[in-house]
Design goal:
about 0% strand
Length: about 475
């Protein structure tokens, strides 16, 4: 039986690499669509869960509704980020492969002969001396080859200027990609809870970083400082730099840097480090300036939800209201009833945290009257939880009735197969603690906080 290139690669990856790939594929620079990301994640997860599954068995589960031609197109699309992951990983594992970056850069500058010569020289040295610092040797090769090339054509002062420009460009390019690798590593390791020391590698780059005037290099340097907590002022410097260079031609880099930092801050807030909420609000504001609407024409609801949640926790209710109004306007243009229902649910949450409990109750009723309440377990659960909180704050239900409603919602959550296991666990933990609260039992919030959603933990801290 023939196995496609995609599945041949995926079966060779170990579990750690699969986990890494599932994070990597979300990098905005890869431009992989959300549906394809979901499919690749599902395929990867199935392979890790059962290595004996064949390609046909996995495809029949993930792409059951697709015809053969569409299945092949999807596999071809998924192969691209998978190959890019292998290339990226080879650079992390074997730094000598960085020659590929600079080789590509030289080719883009139409210096084919020069690039080929450098590549051959480098390969000879790497093969002869495995312990040789290939990256630095590559830089020396590039400088010497470029210098010879320019001197042949032009021996005047102008030739020297061109050489200096060339050196600066190569250094910037080299440095930019090294910082991308460092930031990606730091971000993924934060999420995995592994904290290696990158100081030695960073110290080698630091002299070049200080010389670089390229905004993208500076942005990645500051992002690295944020991700590793090396400098408390780096976050504000990065925010200022991004504000100043909104129209910069390196928008792809800007998006990558913002996404890196936002992912890091979401991780921190989800880890109940609520002091990061104002920073998360600031960074999501930057992204929403450019990505309020997705390339598909849909409103970027998830990002709006993150921004409003961060605003609530940071007690910036005016900011939350601004995002809400913006989302309402976009929802009207799209004429999406589903989005309008979601907006009314978010508005109910905002009213609740602003202590406008009656208004929150009315908005919850609006949401309950939509079809969405009955078809989406995620939002129905959130809505019913908000009703329980509102009833508790308004003292308009007997404790026995509240307890019955808590138990009823718990049974509903247990039955929902479509709810993510982690989300289920957080909802159930909230109901356990909430039941204790209703029955006037003591709660050890610090001990239980890791099992709560950040917004629920924040509410308990405000009681």
């Amino acid at each position: 039986m023939t196995v496609s290139k995609l599945f041949e690669i995926l079966h060779k990856l170990d579990e750690e690499q699969h986990q890494d790939l599932r994070w990597f594929v979300q990098m905005p620079s890869l431009k992989v669509g959300p549906k394809d990301i979901k499919k690749l994640k599902k395929i990867s997860t199935l392979i890790c869960e059962n290595r004996s599954l064949t390609e046909d068995q996995i495809i029949s589960k993930v792409l059951a509704k697709e015809k053969t031609a569409e299945r092949n197109r999807i596999k071809s699309r998924l192969l691209i980020p998978t190959l890019e992951y292998l290339r990226f990983r080879s650079i992390e594992v074997a730094p000598s492969v960085n020659e590929a970056y600079l080789h590509k850069w030289l080719l883009s500058k139409e210096m084919n002969r020069n690039a080929s010569s450098v590549k051959k020289d480098l390969q000879k040295i790497v093969e002869a001396k495995a312990d040789y610092d290939a990256e630095h040797f590559l830089m020396e090769c590039l400088f010497s080859e470029t210098k010879v090339d320019i001197n042949k054509k032009n021996r005047d002062v102008k030739g020297q200027e061109v050489l200096e420009q060339m050196q600066t460009a190569i250094l910037d390019y080299f440095c930019l990609h090294q910082m991308r690798i460092l930031c990606e590593k730091a971000n993924r390791n934060n999420i995995l809870g592994v904290f290696p020391d990158y100081a030695v590698w960073y110290e080698q780059l630091e002299p070049i970083l200080k010389q670089s005037k390229r905004v993208q290099v500076q942005a990645y340097d500051l992002a690295y400082q944020v991700l590793t907590g090396k400098d408390e002022t780096s976050f504000y410097k990065l925010s200022k730099l991004l504000d100043k260079n909104k129209a910069d031609e390196g928008n792809q880099i800007r998006t990558e840097v913002l996404t890196l930092v936002v992912n890091f801050l979401i991780f921190k807030v989800n880890n109940h480090e609520l002091v990061f909420a104002p920073k998360l609000l600031d960074m999501t504001s930057h992204i929403l300036e450019e990505q309020a609407v997705l390339p598909t024409g849909e409103v970027n609801y998830q990002l709006f939800k993150i921004a409003i949640g961060a605003s609530i926790i940071a007690q910036k209710h005016e900011e939350a209201q601004r995002f809400l109004e913006q989302m309402k306007q976009l929802a009207k243009k799209g004429s999406s009833k589903a989005l309008e229902a979601r907006v009314s649910f978010i508005e109910a949450q905002m009213a609740f945290f602003a202590k406008n409990y009656k208004q929150s109750e009315q908005l919850v009723t609006v949401f309950r009257n939509s079809d969405y309440y009955y078809t989406d377990a995620f939002f129905k659960t959130g809505c019913d939880k908000l009703s329980l909180k509102t009833d508790y704050m308004l003292k308009q239900r007997d404790d026995s009735v509240l307890t019955q409603n808590i138990d009823s919602l718990r049974r509903y959550i247990d039955k929902q197969k479509n709810l993510n296991a982690t989300i289920k666990k957080k909802h159930i933990q909230f109901l356990k603690l909430f039941k204790k609260l209703v029955n006037n039992k003591q709660i050890d919030l610090e001990k239980e906080k890791q099992s709560l959603a950040p917004i629920d933990y924040y509410w308990f801290t405000q009681l």
